């Protein structure tokens, strides 16, 4: 639908239709509009007892399960719903359908697409309906409509622009009386606008000369005036960012101090700054009280307080005057009509609109709908709106065979593991969805150590580029690496880049011959030197990460979800759950206080060969300190027992 045509009212009509205990309907991407939708369904005559409820982090597992059983419509947070589906806390077969608000956000890597895939795998009878009022976003990119339909598992698309017959006839029945009030620019504002246009045109031409990878059709003044022009240019240049010259980076990153803006040194910038200052103050002659031309007056004369005087101007915003007049007029009308609400309810309200000459938003929306109508006429509908269940995907995977002639060339190779334990906080990223799509079993659980557990010995901490910089600067990555090293034999740091962006941490020109405290490469080097057992995986995108995980999991045992969840949070583990989860300390059977372990290892007479025996014999350090010399000798040996006994019993 066109923006502003009442998409929430349409969504509220569908919500009202399914508000019944006989069905269970879940609404995605509508938590922020929940209050508005609840109010709208009440105006449609819904019983208050059947009002839709919000399911978010404030509801625990038992509450959510009871709510799902009662039925009705629920506004659900996407991350909570995907965890409930994977953990079988809600049966997809019991869900009557899904309502997806802001359907243009559904992409291959989005969490909404993950939810829809989980739903369609186990429920082929329920309905899915998507709602969108951002025609520009839906028409951007290559085959965007087809991709959205594919991930929504639907085959029908309905377009309702402003010029649609039904929409136009509805709007014509209730024509408002509109007054358009145009706010004129002051002389100084006109000078500033002209200077900005000149500077922008010069910047665009300079960008055309320095960047050959950009299409000349995209570098026009009409497109440069759009708000999305800067982000569009960055998306085009991101894959080649580390190869671009410094001049191009200055032109595209002029908002950062690292890249000063070249246009600031032009005549247009000088006129802009001068006009901006004149809106705030003027330099006047104290004798005649007339403005002084700063360019004609020398700086030495300006410094002389007797030759010039600063006078505040503080030019008032033109919109304030117009707005004050409108509010005064509205106030007078309200007094005259004595708040005649009946006339307002009948649709006789006057709408005062303060606009600019260019109606760019309406023009962009019309062009977007024209493109959508053309795409719909030539749309390649997905032949299959269902997704194969996970067990069928696994069955269809190609079976690998050994080429060893001594085994006849037909011996099956060891099959890679298919289970991955994933921290529930990682469902904000695209990787869990990609893992499931490639046929791996995703086991959601709250992990205190790491983000992904691939086997009893391998734990992975995933870092995006922005998160990597932040974690290294704050020291959080050091603590995370220490925790993984303590409990897992092979700690892994996964550095995942964004698809479509440069596969480089920093430019080659920024690499120095020596360690630099501010360099990301230097910080990574120090991290590796401190943790020699830490392995680093470099991934270009979530798709590449899935391939890496499959390779790493090959010939590895399946991870234990209970054991992974117990590590690091003080929960006891039984022997079967803890088997194999042995890190540097080899703690496979129980969880121990890590701080006490560090103190224990530093005591005289305690080493890597006997500290496990001490852990199994005493409960805490206090009990250890009370043992006699004979007990310590029996536990640690004569030499080590005497060292520890002397340490505990010597006077300070």
Automatic annotation (TrEMBL):
Primary subcellular site in the record, as a coarse category: nucleus
One function term, GO molecular function aspect: single-stranded DNA endodeoxyribonuclease activity
Xref: Pfam families: ERCC4 (PF02732)
SMART domains xrefs: ERCC4 (SM00891)
Domain ERCC4: 419-499
Subcellular location, record wording: Nucleus
Annotated GO CC locations: nucleotide-excision repair factor 1 complex
SUPFAM superfamilies with a match to the protein in the record: Restriction endonuclease-like, RuvA domain 2-like
Coiled-coil intervals: 190-217, 323-375
InterPro entries noted in UniProt: ERCC4_domain, Restrct_endonuc-II-like, RuvA_2-like, XPF_nuclease
Residues spanning the signal sequence: 1-19
Keywords from the UniProt entry: Coiled coil, DNA damage, DNA repair, DNA-binding, Endonuclease, Hydrolase, Nuclease, Nucleus, Signal
GO BP, one annotated term: double-strand break repair via homologous recombination
UniProt similarity note: Belongs to the XPF family.
Protein name, as recorded: DNA repair endonuclease XPF
Species the sequence originates in: Phytophthora palmivora
């Amino acid at each position: 639908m066109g923006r502003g045509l009442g998409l929430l009212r349409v969504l509220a009509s569908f919500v009202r239709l399914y508000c019944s205990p006989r069905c269970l309907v879940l609404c995605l991407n509508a938590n922020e509009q929940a209050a508005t939708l609840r109010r709208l369904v009440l105006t449609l005559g819904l019983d208050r007892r059947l009002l839709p409820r919000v399911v978010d982090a404030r509801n625990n597992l038992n509450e959510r399960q009871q709510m799902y059983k009662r039925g009705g419509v629920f506004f659900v947070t996407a991350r909570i719903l995907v965890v409930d589906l994977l953990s079988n806390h809600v049966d997809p077969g019991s869900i009557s359908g899904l309502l997806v608000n802001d359907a243009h956000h559904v992409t291959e890597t989005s969490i909404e697409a993950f939810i829809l895939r989980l739903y369609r795998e186990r429920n082929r009878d329920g309905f899915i309906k998507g709602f969108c009022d951002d025609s520009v976003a839906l028409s951007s990119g290559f085959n965007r409509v087809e991709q959205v339909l594919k991930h929504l598992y639907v085959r029908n698309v309905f377009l309702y622009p402003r010029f649609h017959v039904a929409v136009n006839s509805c709007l014509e029945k209730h024509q408002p009386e509109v007054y358009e009030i145009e706010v004129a620019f002051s002389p100084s504002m006109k000078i500033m606008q002209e200077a900005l246009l000149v500077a922008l045109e010069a910047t665009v031409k300079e960008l055309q000369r320095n960047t050959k990878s950009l299409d000349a059709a995209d570098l026009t003044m009409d497109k440069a005036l759009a708000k999305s022009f800067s982000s569009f240019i960055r998306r085009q240049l991101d894959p080649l960012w580390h190869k671009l010259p410094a001049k191009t980076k200055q032109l595209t990153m002029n908002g950062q101090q690292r890249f000063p803006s070249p246009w600031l040194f032009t005549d247009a910038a000088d006129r802009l700054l001068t006009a901006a200052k004149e809106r705030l103050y003027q330099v006047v002659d104290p004798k005649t009280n007339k403005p002084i031309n700063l360019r004609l007056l020398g700086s030495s004369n300006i410094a002389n307080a007797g030759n010039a005087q600063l006078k505040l101007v503080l030019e008032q915003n033109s919109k304030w005057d117009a707005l004050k007049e409108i509010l005064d007029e509205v106030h007078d009308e309200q007094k005259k009509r004595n708040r005649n609400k009946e006339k307002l309810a009948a649709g006789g309200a006057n709408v005062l609109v303060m606009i600019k000459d260019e109606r760019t938003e309406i023009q962009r929306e019309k062009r977007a709908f024209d493109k959508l109508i053309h795409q719909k006429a030539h749309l390649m509908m997905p032949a299959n709106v269902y997704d194969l269940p996970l067990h069928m995907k696994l069955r269809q995977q190609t079976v690998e065979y050994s080429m060893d002639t001594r085994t006849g060339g037909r011996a099956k190779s060891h099959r890679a593991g298919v289970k991955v334990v994933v921290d529930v906080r990682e469902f904000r990223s695209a990787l869990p969805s990609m893992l499931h799509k490639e046929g791996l079993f995703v086991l959601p659980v709250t992990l205190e150590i790491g983000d992904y557990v691939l086997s009893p010995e391998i734990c992975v901490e995933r870092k995006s580029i922005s998160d990597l910089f932040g974690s290294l600067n704050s020291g959080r990555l050091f603590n995370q690496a220490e925790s993984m090293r303590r409990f897992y034999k092979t700690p892994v740091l996964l550095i995942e880049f964004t698809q479509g962006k440069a596969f480089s941490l920093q430019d080659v020109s920024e690499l120095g011959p020596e360690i630099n405290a501010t360099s990301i490469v230097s910080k990574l080097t120090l991290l590796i030197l401190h943790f020699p057992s830490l392995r680093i995986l470099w991934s270009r995108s979530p798709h590449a990460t899935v391939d890496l995980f499959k390779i790493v999991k090959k010939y590895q045992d399946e991870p234990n979800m209970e054991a992974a969840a117990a590590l690091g949070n003080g929960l006891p583990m039984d022997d079967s759950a803890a088997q194999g989860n042995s890190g540097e300390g080899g703690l496979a059977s129980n969880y121990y206080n890590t701080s006490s372990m560090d103190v224990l290892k530093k005591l005289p007479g305690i080493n890597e060969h006997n500290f496990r025996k001490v852990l199994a014999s005493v409960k805490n350090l206090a009990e250890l300190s009370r043992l006699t010399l004979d007990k310590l000798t029996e536990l640690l040996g004569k030499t080590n027992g005497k060292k520890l006994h002397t340490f505990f019993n010597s006077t300070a």
